[in-house]
Amino acid sequence: MRRYRFHLHILPEAYVDYYRGVVRSVVVITTAGQSLEFPASLLVKFVTREGIEGDFVLTCDDKNKCIELERG
After folding, report:
1. Tens of pLDDT along 31-43?
2. CB neighbourhood size of 28 (10 A)
3. How far is CA 21 from CA 5, 14, 39, in A?
4. What is the pLDDT of residues 25-72, one digit of tens each?
5. How many Å separate Cα 15 from the centre of its chain?
6. From residue 6, how far is each of 21, 22, 38, 67 by CA, in Å?
7. pLDDT of residue 54
8. Cβ(56)–Cβ(6) below 8 Å
9. Does the domain at residues 2-71 carry the CATH identifier 2.40.50?
10. What is the pLDDT of residue 14?
């Protein structure tokens, strides 16, 4: 399994496009400098009135299928 760490800051106004399905994926730069794309639907449980902010860890299997996104 692979684990990718990154920081994310999405304002509530910006997340509306993700929520509506207009934008289906999120692209971030990991702490290791890699570009990483994952489904925006993984972020739903982290949305607050302030948007989404924090450090996260995305765990993927050996075929890079997303297994879990958690705060890290």
Report:
1. 999 999 999 989 9
2. 17
3. 24, 12, 10
4. 999 999 999 999 999 989 989 989 899 999 999 999 999 899 999 998
5. 11
6. 23, 23, 12, 16
7. 97
8. yes
9. yes
10. 84
CA–CA gap between residue 56 and residue 62 (Å, rounded) = 19
- pLDDT at position 35 is 97
Q: Pull the structure tokens for residue 24.
A: 């289906």
Q: Which two tokens stand for residue 62?
A: 């050996």
Task: Name the residue ranges covered by the structural domains of the chain.
Answer: 2-71
Spatial distance between the Cα atoms of 3 and 7, rounded to a whole number of angstroms: 14
Q: Which of 48, 50, 49, 34 is nearest to 58 (CA)?
A: 34
* pTM of the complete model: 0.88
